[in-house]
């Protein structure tokens, strides 16, 4: 009997050791995961200003100094296509220091109407070292309401970490974004993170981005919130709560509450 009990103790110790090793393997660094999601959210929204400008606004531009990153601009009237080229070096006197390379291509419907549609495509494009691939579709719902959807976008970081995700978003602003104060966005992004886990980003309709901040290459929303949920398997999710807080001008604090209750500033 003693030998049997001793065998059970050894078996229990071995199982406990294996369980500890497994826990270490599946342990997630919450701040790292939060920063990855914040980078994804920023990469999705950094090109919104380009996307929400109308063809007529691009056609009437005499300078690109008010476009984030000061790209080279080509407008083709016959096909209603716009090319934004970030590869040539140009003097750009903007406060923000986010970097882009490659091209963004916008293709507008041949007829302008309240239900006009257009698409934004990334052409060998990267933002702050992360490559972005895919096509985003936009459609006017009314004079100041725009619907966006895409399926999917792929973002790959410099460390070769890839997020693949889809989205359904609504944007509300003025009839011409360049003259408007800004726009409010709300909707949902969902996909798979580098660890193969499903994630979901809920954006209440209070995410405000200012045109004047975009024009200075300042790309963080000045108000709003986001709720990030990530699957941990077996119908279990963890949740992050993000809040944007305007400090002054276009300087914003992006604070997130981690699933364990800690608070983290994502853009120190």
UniProtKB/TrEMBL annotation:
<protein>
    <recommendedName>
        <fullName>Lipoprotein</fullName>
    </recommendedName>
</protein>
């Amino acid at each position: 009997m003693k030998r049997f009990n001793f065998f059970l103790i050894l078996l229990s110790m071995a199982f406990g050791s294996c369980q500890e090793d497994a826990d270490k393997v599946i342990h997630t660094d919450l701040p790292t995961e939060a920063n990855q999601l914040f980078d994804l959210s920023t990469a999705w929204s950094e090109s919104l200003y380009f996307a929400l400008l109308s063809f007529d606004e691009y056609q009437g531009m005499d300078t690109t100094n008010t476009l984030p990153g000061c790209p080279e601009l080509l407008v083709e009237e016959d096909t209603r296509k716009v090319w934004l080229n970030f590869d040539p070096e140009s003097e750009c006197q903007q406060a923000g220091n986010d970097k882009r390379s490659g091209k963004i291509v916008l293709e507008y419907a041949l007829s302008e109407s309240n239900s006009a549609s257009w698409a934004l495509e990334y052409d060998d494009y990267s933002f702050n070292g992360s490559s972005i691939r895919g096509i985003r579709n936009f459609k006017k719902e009314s004079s100041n309401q725009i619907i966006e959807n895409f399926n999917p976008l792929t973002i790959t970081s410099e460390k070769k970490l890839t997020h693949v995700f889809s989205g359904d978003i609504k944007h509300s602003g003025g009839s011409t974004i360049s003259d408007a104060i800004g726009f409010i966005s709300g909707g949902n992004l969902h996909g798979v993170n580098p660890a193969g886990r499903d994630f979901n980003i809920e954006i209440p309709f209070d995410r405000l981005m200012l045109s004047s901040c975009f024009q200075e290459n300042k790309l963080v929303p000045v108000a709003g919130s986001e709720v990030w949920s990530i699957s941990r398997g077996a119908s279990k999710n963890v949740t992050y709560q993000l809040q944007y807080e305007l400090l002054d001008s276009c300087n914003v604090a992006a604070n997130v509450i981690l699933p364990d209750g800690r608070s983290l500033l994502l853009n120190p």
